[in-house]
């Protein structure tokens, strides 16, 4: 009973920090794995398969808690002192060059190192076989027999006595491999290190493992991380050379300037890394992916081919195709090719070809890469011609052709990482289509153009349509609904980008989780000052909410009813007469109020359209002012009209915004 009481009173009892049991329970609860290689090393604990929540819980509750960046090593040392067996266990010491079996005889907790000696018999494996017993003994003597804990893999033991030791070392190893950055120690100490750095990096790691991040973005992140580490090392060398010298020489001044430049570059890369690490911002800002698709051009013969994809071909269907699509007037010189699936047909296309897909449900495993000007058309209604994506992958449709047209199709996306359709270059027309999305919907990249009309888009976990700076997007008579956001217009205030051209006419944007339309732009200097005065720090998020139909029009309608009933009561003078009069006039009253409601709703939708157009136009004007100021600083007092014609073309008319979770229009400032 005394032992159990002590365990209950201690926050660091063996059960309290791990889901894998404790030393009090007989036998291990961890798996084992056989080391690779030719040497017969003993089995080791299998600990690298931990789930996200297991690592999250360990770092948040028991290892780092609310420590600051400068306290990380101290907190880890305290944690290890409470759970690590100080001696009596074996491990495989692994480096990039060799592996050797060692026995642990002590632990230097403050240095996060183990005191080891070579095990008997001597077991070692190296790339060139040059590490003998004498070499390893000399190496250990140079290291004073102390090696980093994260370089040790604990040898398997069935008793369960070393479970906590194996898990603790795994947490330390994972932390320094995947979470810790060499510059973290210089982070400001007023921030919680776990919240600011550990959690977003941990989530990113598991999002990558589970294929929830585009492969291109993963490559970008790794490249940025490598660049940042390289520049930070150079910065440290320059900074140390300055701090070790007291002279005010020209060489030191040059070093200071070089150090400042390196510091700015490092900070810029760190901000890019933080954007990707943040699960929201990585999709808000995305990454500049270049569609490196090569157009085939015209056929060597100069002929244009019509490709037909039949689910099943019957004589009647062939007759209808010939009448409606293949030979409406003349069949002379027409070349027709038949394919078994839409992807094969698109891959066989050259410039000017046409693909006709017959009714059916087509399941494809691949990406539609359209680099030439081709037309992809469903023969029938969209619900009759369905193309479904099978298998995990980044993209579904990648468009870079000068003039692509897709019509009368239903596109269904599953297990996706990127959007359902990406327009990288050229113009893509989407007409009379249904798009069932998985992540984001349609992305219109810089310098690309999209014309989407009479189509229906839904189900995106991001924005239904993402509009990049320098692009052109025309949306006519579409439905965009049940997405995270309806339409997202990305930052175009950067000096490298032109304002986009946006036309939105008679679209129905409804039932989205967030806003109908969101504008993303940076915080201006004046806004930054206001935020600083209020004590706001970090990334700024201001959302400007317009009235929502579901919460504003109905109360307005009820207010009208109450007001008119009140006037009727006053005019009648008698409660009974008023009641009778109100009952007699009820049909007319309700008709009047419904008319008022309709007018109020129409007025509100007009206000929503006007507000979106005004805010986008004002932001475009700000862009023009910034551009003019830059030209003035460069000495250009009179700018060419074409150079200054960067104002956004905005036409927002007749759109309806209903039942969007946060409202019709929002602004995201970063």
How would you describe this structure to a colleague?
This protein has 670 residues and is α/β, with parallel strands linked by helices. Helix content is 38%, strand content 22%. It contains 17 helices and 34 strands. Helix 11 links the parallel strand 9 (305-309) and strand 10.
Q: Helical amount among residues, as a percent range? A: 25-40%
Number of helices: 17
| Strand order, largest beta sheet | 10-9-11-14-17-20-23-26-29-32
Q: Work out the number of β strands.
A: 34
> How far apart lie the N and C ends?
57 Å
Radius of gyration: 33 Å
Supply the helix-strand structural class: alpha/beta
Largest sheet, described in full?
A: 10 strands, parallel
Low-confidence stretches: 1-25, 535-591, 636-647
| Average of the residue pLDDT scores | 79
Query: What percent of residues are in strands?
Result: 15-25%
- Shape label: globular
Keywords: Acetylation, Cytoplasm, Cytoskeleton, Phosphoprotein, Repeat
Function: May play a role in signaling pathways governing cellular proliferation, cell growth and differentiation. May be a component of a novel signaling pathway downstream of Shc. Acts as a positive regulator of FGF signaling in neural progenitor cells.
Domain Right handed beta helix: 416-519
Main location: cytoplasm
């Amino acid at each position: 009973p005394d032992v159990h009481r002590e365990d209950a009173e201690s926050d660091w009892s063996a059960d309290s920090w791990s889901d894998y049991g404790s030393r009090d329970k007989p036998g291990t609860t961890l798996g084992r794995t056989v080391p690779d290689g030719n040497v017969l090393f003993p089995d080791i604990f299998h600990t690298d398969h931990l789930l996200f929540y297991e690592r999250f819980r360990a770092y948040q509750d028991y290892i780092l808690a609310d420590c600051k960046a400068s306290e990380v090593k101290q907190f880890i040392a305290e944690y290890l002192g409470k759970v690590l067996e100080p001696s009596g266990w074996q491990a495989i010491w692994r480096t990039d060059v060799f592996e050797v079996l060692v026995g642990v005889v002590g632990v230097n907790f403050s240095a996060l190192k183990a005191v080891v000696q070579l095990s008997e018999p001597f077991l070692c494996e190296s790339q060139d076989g040059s590490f003998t017993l004498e070499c390893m003994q000399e190496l250990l003597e140079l290291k004073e027999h102390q090696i980093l804990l994260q370089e040790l893999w604990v040898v398997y033991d069935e008793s369960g006595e070393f479970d906590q030791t194996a898990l603790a070392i795994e947490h330390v190893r994972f932390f320094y491999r995947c979470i810790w950055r060499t510059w973290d120690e210089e982070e400001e100490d007023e921030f919680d290190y776990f919240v600011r750095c550990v959690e977003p990096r941990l989530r990113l790691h598991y999002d990558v493992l589970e294929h929830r991040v585009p492969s291109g973005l993963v490559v970008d992140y790794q490249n940025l991380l490598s660049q940042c580490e390289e520049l930070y090392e150079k910065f440290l060398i320059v900074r140390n050379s300055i701090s070790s010298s007291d002279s005010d020489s020209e060489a030191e001044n040059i070093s200071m300037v070089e150090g400042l430049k390196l510091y700015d570059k490092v900070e810029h890369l760190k901000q890019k890394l933080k954007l990707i690490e943040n699960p929201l911002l990585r999709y808000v800002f995305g990454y500049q992916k270049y569609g490196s698709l090569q157009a085939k051009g015209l056929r060597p013969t100069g002929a244009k081919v019509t490709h037909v994809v039949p689910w099943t071909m019957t004589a009647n269907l062939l007759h209808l195709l010939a009448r409606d699509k293949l030979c409406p007037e003349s069949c002379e010189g027409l070349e027709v090719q038949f394919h078994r699936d839409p992807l094969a047909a698109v891959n066989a296309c050259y410039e000017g070809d046409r693909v006709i897909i017959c009714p059916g449900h087509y399941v494809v495993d691949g990406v539609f890469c359209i680099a030439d000007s081709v037309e992809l058309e469903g023969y029938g209604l969209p619900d009759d011609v369905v193309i479904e994506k099978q298998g995990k992958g980044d993209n579904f449709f990648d468009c870079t052709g000068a003039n692509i047209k897709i019509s009368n199709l239903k596109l269904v996306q599953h297990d996706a990482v990127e959007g359902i359709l990406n327009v990288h270059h050229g113009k893509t027309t989407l007409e009379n289509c249904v798009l069932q999305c998985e992540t984001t919907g349609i992305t219109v990249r810089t310098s690309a153009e999209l014309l989407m009309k009479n189509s229906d888009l839904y189900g995106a976990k991001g924005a239904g349509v993402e509009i990049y700076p320098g692009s052109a997007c025309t949306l006519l008579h579409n439905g965009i609904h049940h997405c995270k956001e309806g339409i997202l217009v990305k930052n175009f205030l950067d000096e490298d980008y032109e304002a986009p051209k946006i036309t939105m006419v008679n679209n129905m944007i409804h039932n989205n989780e967030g806003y109908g339309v969101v504008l993303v732009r940076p915080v201006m200097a004046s806004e930054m000052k206001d935020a600083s005065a209020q004590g706001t720090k970090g990334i700024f998020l201001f959302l400007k909410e317009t009235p929502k139909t579901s919460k504003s029009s109905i109360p307005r309608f009820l207010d009208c009813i109450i007001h008119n009933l009140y006037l009727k009561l006053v005019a009648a003078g008698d409660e009974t007469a008023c009641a009778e009069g109100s009952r007699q006039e009820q049909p007319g009253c309700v008709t009047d109020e419904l008319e008022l409601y309709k007018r109020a709703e129409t007025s509100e939708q007009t206000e929503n359209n006007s507000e979106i157009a005004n805010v986008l136009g004002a932001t475009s004007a700000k862009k023009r002012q910034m551009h003019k100021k830059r030209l003035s600083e460069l000495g250009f007092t009179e700018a060419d009209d074409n150079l200054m014609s960067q104002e956004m073309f905005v036409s927002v008319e007749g759109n309806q915004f209903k039942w969007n979770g946060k409202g019709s229009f929002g602004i995201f400032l970063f």
